[in-house]
């Protein structure tokens, strides 16, 4: 069996966990094996095992890698709003969320299979029911995003920004879930556009 090469490129572990995310999104947690990653990356059989001996180690490294990328993406998305002097308007915020969702859907359309990162993330939601560490990371991800959203609602004058952010984030997760799995139903109903998000923002402001 190959051993982990100390002189190997530092991104070898990242390459393995990136491949694992793709496999997790494509085939679910049962498809995530050392051998599947070796095949996908063209590695000699046993290479992934040299870096992550147990399957549990591989799964948790993949989950941590996925959520670390989530944390960076969340911080980057909200940084643009933090740098603005003026408070965001509900219309601007609604359009921003609609544009973000449109980008996700464009990625799905281009791949023809959906966003593997998003599908892997939903697979982690299922895993969180059984794995305490995955559940902790999932809750940390939710809390990080809700914290950013609460700051936006506070700047818009919401009387209870934390409650408003929690309500809006619940609706937002439902919107992204629907976009991932039943986009045609949302299109037929004329939802998931800026007007839809404006209604959700208005409702959250009253929470």
From TrEMBL:
Q: Which residues form the HTH tetR-type domain?
A: 10-70
* One Pfam family per UniProt: TetR_C_31
Tell me which residues form the DNA-binding region: 33-52
Q: Tell me the keywords, alphabetical order.
A: DNA-binding
What name goes with this protein? TetR family transcriptional regulator
């Amino acid at each position: 069996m190959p051993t982990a090469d100390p002189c190997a490129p530092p991104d070898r572990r990242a390459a393995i966990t990136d491949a694992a995310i793709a496999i997790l999104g494509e085939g679910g947690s049962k498809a995530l094996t050392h051998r599947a990653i070796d095949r996908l990356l063209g590695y000699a059989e046993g290479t992934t095992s040299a870096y992550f001996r147990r399957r549990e180690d591989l799964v948790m490294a993949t989950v941590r890698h996925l959520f670390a990328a989530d944390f960076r993406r969340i911080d980057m998305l909200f940084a643009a709003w933090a740098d603005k002097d003026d408070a965001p308007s509900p219309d601007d915020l609604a359009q921003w969320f609609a544009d973000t969702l449109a980008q996700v859907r464009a990625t799905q359309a281009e791949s023809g299979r959906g966003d593997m990162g998003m599908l892997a993330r939903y697979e982690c939601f299922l895993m969180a029911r059984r794995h305490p560490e995955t559940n902790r990371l999932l809750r940390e991800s939710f809390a990080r995003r809700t914290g950013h959203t609460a700051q936006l609602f506070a700047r818009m004058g919401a009387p209870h920004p934390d409650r408003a952010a929690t309500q809006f984030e619940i609706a937002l997760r439902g919107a992204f879930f629907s976009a991932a799995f039943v986009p045609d139903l949302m299109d037929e109903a004329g939802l998931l556009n800026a007007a839809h998000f404006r209604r959700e923002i208005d409702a959250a402001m009253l929470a």
